[in-house]
Inverse folding.
């Protein structure tokens, strides 16, 4: 059966309307971006507030023993914080689609709304496309809006020390508009696959959320000084996730085939 974009958009619109009615889910989606924006701004502000503190130079020398004597340790740590925090920022485009996709896939069984889908002529590809868009569009939009607030906040609090705008830089611009959507697709793909196998949306969310642990672990490695982050480092992550996205898309279409849905969820 041929792919019909109109049917995929119908699935997207149905799930989007369901999302607007779920107040609890909307609140959950707003909490993480708020944390991701306020925490680094607070860290930068703490460096700006006490730029000449002796401990700052000790920390800076831990990361870069060759730091010149006259260089500002506070400025060095601000730059490092902004570079390393992008890794943590990627948790948001991964986690938000998980919240949405888990509700729109496993939630269909809980709400007993699967039967209309099975009775419609929608194909597996159209179903995956529609439900993926319903998770990806809000997740990417939230990430981009949070990025704007992040840039404004960092520039405002850092201005007294650096006297120039720090954000957006090349790393964050490339990362937010290229790498973040790839990570959002990854989170959505994992949630779709797991949701198709479990019976409850809450369980799907809990299991799918485990995929953020490697991201947090890599950020921990950066903070500990074991990994050196940069544009190339994050671009490599994006390339790996792109391959995983293709695999997840193929697996999702196979798993959400009509006959599989009827035999497993019907």
């Amino acid at each position: 059966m041929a792919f019909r974009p109109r049917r995929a958009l119908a699935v997207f619109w149905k799930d989007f309307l369901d999302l607007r009615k779920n107040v609890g889910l909307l609140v959950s989606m707003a909490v993480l971006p708020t944390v991701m924006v306020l925490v680094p701004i607070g860290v930068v502000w703490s460096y700006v507030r006490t730029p000449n503190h002796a401990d700052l130079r000790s920390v800076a020398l831990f990361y870069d023993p060759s730091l010149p004597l006259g260089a500002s340790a506070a400025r060095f740590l601000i730059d490092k914080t902004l570079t390393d925090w992008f890794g943590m920022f990627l948790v948001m485009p991964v986690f938000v689609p998980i919240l949405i996709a888990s509700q729109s896939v496993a939630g269909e069984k809980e709400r007993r709304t699967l039967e209309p889908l099975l009775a419609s002529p929608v194909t597996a590809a159209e179903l995956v496309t529609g439900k993926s868009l319903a998770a990806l569009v809000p997740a990417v939009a939230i990430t981009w809006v949070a990025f704007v607030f992040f840039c404004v906040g960092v520039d405002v609090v850092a201005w007294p020390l650096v006297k120039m705008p720090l954000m957006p830089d090349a790393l964050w611009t490339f990362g937010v508009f290229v790498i973040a959507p790839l990570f959002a697709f990854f989170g959505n793909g994992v949630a779709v696959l797991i949701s198709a196998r479990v019976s409850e949306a809450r369980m799907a969310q809990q299991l799918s959320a485990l995929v953020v642990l490697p991201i947090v672990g890599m950020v921990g490695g950066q903070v500990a000084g074991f990994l050196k982050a940069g544009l190339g480092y994050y671009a490599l992550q994006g390339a790996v996730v792109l391959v995983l996205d293709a695999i997840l898309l193929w697996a999702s279409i196979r798993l959400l085939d009509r006959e599989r849905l009827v035999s497993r969820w019907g």
